[in-house]
Design goal:
With 170 residues, this protein is of the alpha/beta class. The chain has six helices and nine strands; from the N terminus they run βααβαβαββββββαα. 29% of the residues lie in helices and 18% in strands. The strands form two sheets. Strands 4-3-2-1-9 form a five-stranded mixed sheet. It comes from Paenibacillus albilobatus.
Protein backbone atom coordinates (compact mmCIF):
# COMPACT_ATOMS: atom_id res chain seq x y z
CA UNK A 1 0.00 0.00 0.00
CA UNK A 2 1.37 3.39 -0.91
CA UNK A 3 2.05 6.05 1.68
CA UNK A 4 2.05 9.86 1.61
CA UNK A 5 5.02 11.93 2.77
CA UNK A 6 5.87 15.62 3.11
CA UNK A 7 9.25 17.38 3.20
CA UNK A 8 10.57 20.85 2.56
CA UNK A 9 13.63 22.96 1.88
CA UNK A 10 16.26 20.56 0.59
CA UNK A 11 18.10 23.37 -1.21
CA UNK A 12 19.93 20.85 -3.41
CA UNK A 13 23.14 22.41 -4.72
CA UNK A 14 23.04 25.38 -2.32
CA UNK A 15 26.49 25.57 -0.71
CA UNK A 16 25.60 28.55 1.51
CA UNK A 17 22.66 26.78 3.20
CA UNK A 18 25.24 24.62 4.98
CA UNK A 19 26.44 27.66 6.93
CA UNK A 20 23.06 29.42 7.12
CA UNK A 21 21.43 26.42 8.83
CA UNK A 22 24.49 24.75 10.39
CA UNK A 23 24.01 21.65 8.26
CA UNK A 24 26.69 19.02 9.03
CA UNK A 25 28.25 18.81 5.56
CA UNK A 26 31.47 20.06 3.99
CA UNK A 27 30.11 20.50 0.46
CA UNK A 28 26.80 20.78 -1.35
CA UNK A 29 27.59 17.53 -3.17
CA UNK A 30 28.04 15.67 0.14
CA UNK A 31 24.78 17.18 1.41
CA UNK A 32 22.93 16.24 -1.80
CA UNK A 33 24.03 12.60 -1.64
CA UNK A 34 23.09 12.29 2.03
CA UNK A 35 19.64 13.80 1.42
CA UNK A 36 18.99 11.54 -1.60
CA UNK A 37 19.96 8.48 0.46
CA UNK A 38 17.78 9.57 3.40
CA UNK A 39 14.79 10.06 1.06
CA UNK A 40 15.23 6.71 -0.68
CA UNK A 41 15.69 4.88 2.62
CA UNK A 42 12.01 5.36 3.50
CA UNK A 43 10.13 6.30 0.31
CA UNK A 44 9.04 3.48 -2.01
CA UNK A 45 8.41 3.76 -5.75
CA UNK A 46 4.60 3.91 -5.40
CA UNK A 47 4.58 6.43 -2.53
CA UNK A 48 3.54 10.06 -2.96
CA UNK A 49 5.74 12.91 -1.69
CA UNK A 50 4.61 16.50 -1.35
CA UNK A 51 7.67 18.73 -1.48
CA UNK A 52 6.81 22.05 0.12
CA UNK A 53 9.31 24.13 -1.78
CA UNK A 54 12.91 25.29 -2.16
CA UNK A 55 13.92 22.08 -3.85
CA UNK A 56 17.00 22.82 -5.97
CA UNK A 57 19.46 25.56 -6.86
CA UNK A 58 20.83 23.57 -9.82
CA UNK A 59 20.09 24.00 -13.52
CA UNK A 60 17.37 21.86 -15.08
CA UNK A 61 19.70 19.04 -16.13
CA UNK A 62 21.12 18.53 -12.61
CA UNK A 63 17.74 19.07 -10.96
CA UNK A 64 16.14 16.49 -13.25
CA UNK A 65 18.91 13.99 -12.44
CA UNK A 66 18.15 14.37 -8.72
CA UNK A 67 14.38 14.11 -9.19
CA UNK A 68 14.88 10.91 -11.22
CA UNK A 69 16.98 9.38 -8.44
CA UNK A 70 14.36 10.05 -5.76
CA UNK A 71 11.77 7.34 -5.14
CA UNK A 72 8.05 8.03 -5.31
CA UNK A 73 5.69 10.30 -7.18
CA UNK A 74 6.75 13.86 -6.44
CA UNK A 75 4.47 16.90 -6.12
CA UNK A 76 5.93 20.39 -5.68
CA UNK A 77 4.46 23.45 -4.02
CA UNK A 78 6.68 26.28 -5.18
CA UNK A 79 8.86 27.91 -2.56
CA UNK A 80 10.36 31.39 -2.69
CA UNK A 81 13.56 30.03 -4.28
CA UNK A 82 11.61 27.96 -6.87
CA UNK A 83 9.52 30.82 -8.24
CA UNK A 84 12.16 32.09 -10.66
CA UNK A 85 11.32 29.07 -12.79
CA UNK A 86 8.01 28.29 -14.48
CA UNK A 87 5.67 25.44 -13.63
CA UNK A 88 6.63 23.93 -16.99
CA UNK A 89 10.32 23.99 -15.96
CA UNK A 90 9.57 22.00 -12.80
CA UNK A 91 7.25 19.57 -14.61
CA UNK A 92 10.00 18.99 -17.17
CA UNK A 93 12.42 18.41 -14.28
CA UNK A 94 10.26 15.45 -13.26
CA UNK A 95 7.56 16.54 -10.83
CA UNK A 96 4.12 14.98 -11.35
CA UNK A 97 2.33 18.20 -10.43
CA UNK A 98 3.39 21.71 -9.48
CA UNK A 99 1.34 24.24 -7.54
CA UNK A 100 2.02 27.94 -7.20
CA UNK A 101 -0.32 28.13 -4.20
CA UNK A 102 -0.97 26.23 -0.98
CA UNK A 103 -3.18 23.17 -1.31
CA UNK A 104 -5.65 21.51 1.04
CA UNK A 105 -4.88 17.87 1.72
CA UNK A 106 -7.32 15.53 3.39
CA UNK A 107 -9.79 18.36 3.96
CA UNK A 108 -7.88 19.38 7.09
CA UNK A 109 -4.23 20.09 6.25
CA UNK A 110 -3.04 23.25 4.51
CA UNK A 111 0.20 22.41 2.68
CA UNK A 112 2.26 25.52 1.98
CA UNK A 113 5.83 26.67 1.63
CA UNK A 114 5.66 29.56 4.09
CA UNK A 115 3.74 29.29 7.35
CA UNK A 116 0.22 30.68 7.04
CA UNK A 117 -1.64 32.66 9.67
CA UNK A 118 -3.64 30.24 11.81
CA UNK A 119 -5.65 31.47 14.78
CA UNK A 120 -6.53 29.12 17.64
CA UNK A 121 -10.13 28.78 16.46
CA UNK A 122 -9.26 27.48 13.00
CA UNK A 123 -9.80 23.73 12.65
CA UNK A 124 -6.87 23.28 10.27
CA UNK A 125 -3.21 22.38 10.53
CA UNK A 126 -0.65 24.16 8.39
CA UNK A 127 2.08 21.78 7.21
CA UNK A 128 4.81 24.08 5.95
CA UNK A 129 8.48 24.70 5.36
CA UNK A 130 10.50 27.87 4.83
CA UNK A 131 11.58 28.60 8.41
CA UNK A 132 14.17 25.78 8.54
CA UNK A 133 15.41 25.23 12.10
CA UNK A 134 12.77 27.45 13.72
CA UNK A 135 9.46 26.07 14.93
CA UNK A 136 6.08 27.59 15.64
CA UNK A 137 4.41 26.47 18.85
CA UNK A 138 1.04 24.79 18.98
CA UNK A 139 -0.97 22.15 17.19
CA UNK A 140 -1.85 24.36 14.21
CA UNK A 141 1.64 24.16 12.66
CA UNK A 142 3.86 21.33 11.51
CA UNK A 143 7.32 22.27 10.20
CA UNK A 144 8.38 19.81 7.49
CA UNK A 145 11.82 21.35 6.87
CA UNK A 146 14.60 18.80 6.42
CA UNK A 147 16.51 20.11 9.45
CA UNK A 148 13.85 18.74 11.82
CA UNK A 149 13.61 15.26 10.29
CA UNK A 150 17.20 14.16 9.58
CA UNK A 151 16.61 15.05 5.91
CA UNK A 152 13.93 12.34 5.53
CA UNK A 153 10.40 12.89 4.26
CA UNK A 154 7.82 12.63 7.06
CA UNK A 155 5.10 9.99 6.75
CA UNK A 156 1.72 11.73 6.80
CA UNK A 157 0.40 9.16 9.26
CA UNK A 158 3.08 10.28 11.74
CA UNK A 159 1.90 13.86 11.32
CA UNK A 160 -1.71 12.81 11.79
CA UNK A 161 -0.82 10.81 14.91
CA UNK A 162 1.18 13.65 16.44
CA UNK A 163 -1.83 15.95 16.04
CA UNK A 164 -4.56 13.46 17.00
CA UNK A 165 -5.62 15.20 20.25
CA UNK A 166 -6.23 18.40 18.25
CA UNK A 167 -8.37 16.58 15.72
CA UNK A 168 -10.52 14.94 18.41
CA UNK A 169 -11.50 18.36 19.80
CA UNK A 170 -13.48 19.19 16.68
Amino acid sequence: MSRVFVISDHHFGHQNIIDFESRPFATAEEMDEYMINQWNEIVEKEDKVFHLGDFSFYNKEKTKAIVQRLHGKKFLILGNHDRGRSKAWWLDAGFEEVSEYPIIYGGFYLLSHEPMYMNKHMPYVNVHGHIHGQKYEGKHYFNACVEHWDYKPVDFEAIRSSLAPNEEQQ
